[in-house]
## 1
Amino acid sequence: MIYLDYQATTPVAPEVAAAMRPWIEEKFANPHSPSKWGREAAAAIEVARDQVVRALERAGGRFAFTSGATEALNWALKGTFETASKRKLVTVATEHAAVLDSAEWLEGKGIEVIRLHVGADGLVDLEMAEAMIDDRTAIVAAMLVNNEIGVIQPIAELAKMAHRAGALMLCDSVQGFGRMPIPDGPDMIAVSGHKIHGPKGVGGLWMRAGAEPSPLLHGGGQEQGLRSGTLSPALCVGMGEAARLAGERREADQTHIEKLCQLALTTLGQDWIINGNMTQRYRGNLNLRRDRLDGARLISDMRNIAFSLGSACASGSGRPSHVLRAIGLTDAQARSSIRLGFGRYTGEEELASACRRINEAAHSQAQLPA
């Protein structure tokens, strides 16, 4: 199988699997136990925490492990409004479901929610953002790299607007962490382990000092008194090692991905249209459409190539992508779109082969009677 679905998840790095193995097998102690083995497990988690923070390139603040970025984003939003005197949230229409569904839930609790529109390029209108972010705003939430179309939002500028209004800035950095520098400005940053060649089931929230949200999960307060629940040393160690590798290999990974992107575009040719801004984007995410293409049928036809129509979190709903609708695509154009994601372990020849086969199948579809 040729795997081209890196936005959904990434292959676990061999170094990560090796680092996790002892904590799955013989080193199974509860890291919150006072025993020698428990203290050893707790120390391994602290090493992993430091590795993640170094990869985030943040000085100060606190990082708490969570079950993933979905929990981190829910916690950041709901926990902030638990104590905030201001009752307004400003976010972007193309955010991940973890933010948009949390925003809808908050609306039911009386929070005013502004969902900023984006242009045809997928980028937020900064003038509109500045008009909407006012002194009633408690938090501004925006994604660094869009998970469906790969565009990079102006996070630093949005953070400045938030701070001028006395609001906090939350950045969903899941698709950007480990792949590019995270801009200065956010007060909270959500990240995930399995998008950086780490394990699933672990992520985290970095918080600037003084910006910590109220706890979402109550119990033993095991994670710095901010989150309850027994941590998995294996998952934390795996995410830490993945973060260390991402920092060490970021430049090499970026060079490789730039080469892969150009190869894919050259191989696919002129019949495809890229969805979203082509310059202000992460190059390992190509969301493309082609006239008269049935993307779902194409995926079914290409049984030995893994790619997607968009967000894995929304797959199976039968509805066109909210991101593609937000950039102005019709339902037909959205259904004619596919997402190719590649990265560290994608080979040039396998990518070229996959693109040729996708092209051939798409061309065959175009020959069928309308």
## 2
Amino acid sequence: MNRLREEIVACRRCPRLVSFREEVARKKKREFRTETYWGRPVPGFGDPNGRLIVVGLAPAPHGGNRTGRIFTGDRSAAFLVRALYTAGFANQPTSRDRRDGLRYTDCFVTAAVRCAPPDNRPRPEERDECLPFLRREFLLLPRARSILALGAFAWDGLRAIVPEVYGGEKPRVPFAHGACAPLGPGRPILWGSYHPSPLNTNTGKLSQPMLVELLERIRDGWESERPARSREVRS
């Protein structure tokens, strides 16, 4: 995982994204003008033994691109991490910077695209350049049971790569909040959620109860299997 992280951070494959992320890091936002921006691709972060993998869109220009940690220091991060905390996947409800003490339990958070894109809109071909990194992350997360795509852009990318990683056919389930696409016996389940962007959360398209309920449904699905396994062992 450390070697993969180094490769991600050093990547310069997409000229448009490289130019934008570095320009943002030079000019900075007024409220962060005294900070040193990360200005590089952002690797995944979390529990390497986690059963849940959360896949977002891309780092925010003044969030992950500033702090160097995915879903950290912006409004989408604040919304997502509060929900993860409420559902029992995080040790605190805030994600402000890399030194804030945040830890995930049973959860690893990453993104379809590793560089901040202009207007928060990465292109499909930029996602395709990044997907090999995501494939390799998945292979290094052997206990994964559920993969949660935040938004249709991440969902479409995941539909393309999960058969390559886990086998089986490409999921045909269309994206929706709460969409569920089992990949087959012994394989993870692909879930969908609206992205926790201000566009969705400010309009009520995605609320905290909606996201928490989905996270708890995912977690409770694992727990419901335990009694059945125990009875089989005793018999």
## 3
Amino acid sequence: MRIGKAIARMARNSGFGIGLAAVLASVVIWGAQLPVAKSAYGLMDPVSLTALRYCLAVSLLLGLLAWREGAASFSLGERPLLMLVAGLCGMAGSPLLVFAGLAYTTPEHAVIILALQPSMSALAQWALRGSRPALFTTISIVVAFLGVVLVVTGQGTGASGKLIGDVLVLLGGACWVTYSLMLPLFPTMSALRFTAVSCAIGTAVIILAALAGMALGMARLPQPDQALQVVPQILYLALAGVTAAMVMWNFGSARVGTLNSILLLNLMPVETYLIRYLQGAHFATQEWLGAALVIAALVANNVYQRRAYAREGKLVRA
């Protein structure tokens, strides 16, 4: 009841409502991202697709940053080495590994694995900062991981569950967790600047990876007569998936808080499964059960954390 009253009070704040809409919009965009990317793989390899996507996205992000904060904001900030690591992990390693893994596995498997990122973040903070999660959170993490095991070992029609792809996606998720944990290390840097500068670093690495792949015959650009067929996917992945969604997520999360943002993020696998079902994919009972366990465990832990914050008299947005 106290949580409901707190949410109601914040809902009356227009800033909270706008932030909620921004986070929800970014989650909806990301929920369709993996099926959209997979649909382009017949004409483009993952590395070239990622390179084109980020080249377009970073151009827009840097233009927006120059307009809002000036050209001086293009610097790496007070901790340049950490910024380089952030760009390498979050904006190069994460998309390259996830999109490469997607070539071997299915969007529904990938999105369930990526849904583990809050759990991976809790484990990372435990290992790095000694911040041991509560018993309920630990149990939720175990249940979520068991759910992922059920999903990736399922043998439903249309879902191969190949281990190599799932492992690559998992590593990509770990890279994104590393990136997320670095944001608080730049307290004087705006979310837009952190996103744009790290994205520029990551894009440079992705371009080098694409060039190396082309030189080795492992990557390719689409033929001119095929290029038009993947333009919608590239525009969606770049303009919506990177530029719009990232800006809206950072904008909205700052207004509604981490717990509310993560709760809405749990809608992403639901949307991806729905899209795949409408595309004709069929899932084994084991896969449905695993996906349900993952989502239920994450939502339950989010509710538990809300109640813990409420008991301590903290804002729900903490």
## 4
Amino acid sequence: MTVRDKIAMAVLPRVVWAHLKFTVLTSRLSVRGSDHADRLVQTGEGFIYAFWHNRQILLPVLRKEENIHCLISSSRDGEYVARLAGLFGKSAIRGSSTRGGFDAMKQLMRVLTQGGIVAITPDGPLGPVYEVQPGVVQISRALGVAVVPVAFDSSRKKVFASWDSFIMPCPFGRIGIVFGEPLRIDKSETLEAGTTRLRDALDRTTSDATRLVSGNSNPR
């Protein structure tokens, strides 16, 4: 890593952290369905937050009291994300389908069996965007843990020219956040069926978050 890279690694996560804190402070937030997650927390059972890769940035800000273990790739970009998560008091489990995936899966399952909370982007780290990879479904089916789909949208945002069109909310706008109803993947359910259910749930929460921002009908 060059000196320039080291400086960027030290500075950029803090800049994004400050931006997000200021954005939440100056925006009008509409949150729906957070009670779904609250009830799971109260039971003490482990569960999974799932959200599309391009809409991951707000969860650490919104669930600030929870020790969420975030699955983050082992890439250099992943290091930025891991450091940002750490600034919000979240833990990082490093690994992906292309590097360190088996060890990361074991760590995730250990956290869940101990009653912890994990966060996963089912279409990450390299896509295709909005296509659920099997990891979340396999974990839920194996352990019987719930999956809470989460999405946000913002009236003021920067959409990056990345593979996933990553969304960064900006200050002085309206932000809609939706936590969908928890779903569980039964052991008798096929991987394909579970994947379809999770994709539909994520698409639904995303549409509902957009409706909150646009002021249209209330989300389901």
